[in-house]
Amino acid sequence: MENTEDNTPKQHTNPPASVAPADVESQSTSITSVLRRWKREDYLKKGQVVLRTIGFFFSLLSFIIMAANRHGDWKNFDQYEEYRYLLAIAILSTFYTIAQVLRQIHEFSTGKYLLPHQQLNLLDFAGDQIMAYLLLSASSTAIPLTNRMREGSDNIFTDSSSASISMGFFAFMAVALSALLSGYKLITQTYI
Amino acid sequence: MENTEDNTPKQHTNPPASVAPADVESQSTSITSVLRRWKREDYLKKGQVVLRTIGFFFSLLSFIIMAANRHGDWKNFDQYEEYRYLLAIAILSTFYTIAQVLRQIHEFSTGKYLLPHQQLNLLDFAGDQIMAYLLLSASSTAIPLTNRMREGSDNIFTDSSSASISMGFFAFMAVALSALLSGYKLITQTYI
Q: Region (Disordered): which ranges (chains A, B) (predicted)?
């Protein structure tokens, strides 16, 4: 059984548990499993790009809506620490997600990686998970204040605040899903 | 090479990538790798029990401190939705963590599992991750209100509130770490 392509690295990582240890069979199954793994990693990367792009748009919206939320007197977002916190995290998340998307597109087009795979995957996961926690924390923090203001009066200031908070939550969901994918990539990485 | 113990299941999951496909060698390395995996899974389970026990104690403290936080007039926790939210999540987390710890101790002592491994691992991970998000959300929500009250006056009510919030954060950290372990267990599970 030497008619296999030579440019396929013959690694034996993770063959299905049901494979009999016969040499010929395991050789061919390990090659198909490697091909399957490559395809799966490709899907994962594309999924991450999509989720982070979604996260980027929602973060950007949250950031812009909150930053424009100045209507004079007590209706300025910067008088409330909750809204300042949300704005700060939305800005951070905007930069983080766009940086990750650009890095991944750069990797797709050139095939070059800024760091070794292992460190990249770790950074990916830690970054996504921490960003998800921050977005959730900032969005939930801003809710009670908005609620209390709306009991009094419902105006453009409170409406913008709620819009910004909702966008923050959507960004959280996208980034949290991306963190799941990153975690999966981190654990199933191959050490070549 | 038939002198291997018969009570060791001959699964070929995840041998190290450097193994040459010679039959004899791969047989013995796969057995040591299985033993190593068992030991690792054992460590993971123990780590989860420890982290969830820590999470249980902090949730319980957060719950008790907040529930006892009634000092008359405006100094009752139940007049503020933030504190009610934190109390609710602390109670939920207390029950969740103690249930998981008791379940795991039951598994250790009897070797019986309530559900198939795969479903258990999935439930474990989803539960831990959602609980971590809820704890973080509840703790961060309660901070600005407490901050604002402390600007006016610093009394036993605000002190108890901050104590309860801190305990909530510690519980979050323990449960978030447990979620990492659960995620690892979920992905590296064997499909026997």
A: 1-25
**A121-164 confidence digits (pLDDT tens):** 888 899 999 999 999 999 999 999 998 888 888 888 899 999 99
Residue A142 resides in a domain: yes
Does ipTM surpass 0.90 in this model?
A: no
* Rounded-to-integer distance, Cα A180 and Cα B190, Å: 19
The answer to whether the Cβ–Cβ distance between B21 and A27 falls below 8 Å is yes
B177 falls within a domain: yes
Q: Which residue in chain B has the smallest CA separation from A141? A: B141
The dihedral formed by the CA atoms of B115, B120, B126 and B132, expressed in degrees to the nearest 10: 110
Residues 142-171 of A with CB under 8 A from B: 143-145, 147
Q: Is B11 exposed, middle or buried (0-12, 13-18, 19+ CB in 10 A)?
A: middle
Whether the model clears a pTM of 0.90, i.e. scores above it, the answer is no
Does residue B5 sit within a domain?
no
Chain B touched by A11 (CB under 8 Å): yes
Q: Are B124 and B100 in contact (CB under 8 A)?
A: yes
Q: Which of B10, B15, B184 sits opposite A187 (nearest CB)?
A: B184
What is the Rg, in whole angstroms, of the alpha carbon atoms belonging to chain B? 23
Total count of domains within chain B: 1
